[in-house]
Design goal:
about 110 residues; alpha+beta; Arc Repressor Mutant, subunit A; three-stranded antiparallel β-sheet; 5 helices; elongated
């Protein structure tokens, strides 16, 4: 019996599916209005902002914000650096700003 070539596993497509799963995980991290607001708030902030500054700007409790920031750091969107008693958060992956710009253009149509 002959195999249908259309049903033979395509290595290229299987690799792409793996990449799409990674992309899905990345986009899920961004798919939250508070996390999107954090990214937008940090845009252009070279030294970053502390948790307290971010909480104050977005009116979010520190415990809640810490969980949001942890997800963004784990996904590689944000980085953090400790200076004395403060932890400053900054945009680590500048490409996320391109994604934000693209998303904003999509909803303005």
């Amino acid at each position: 019996m002959r195999r249908n070539p259309a049903l033979t596993p395509n290595r290229f497509l299987l690799d792409r599916v793996r990449q799409y799963r990674e992309l899905e995980r990345f986009l899920k991290v961004l798919a939250n209005p508070i996390r999107l607001a954090v990214v937008e708030l940090l845009r252009g902030k070279e030294r970053g902002l502390t948790v307290s500054e971010i909480c104050k700007a977005l009116s979010v409790r520190q415990a809640v914000m810490s969980a949001y920031l942890r997800k963004l750091v784990r996904a590689g969107v944000l980085g953090s650096v400790r200076q004395g008693r403060n932890v400053y958060y900054f945009i680590k992956n500048e490409h996320v700003l391109d994604i934000m710009d693209c998303l904003n253009r999509c909803i303005r149509r």
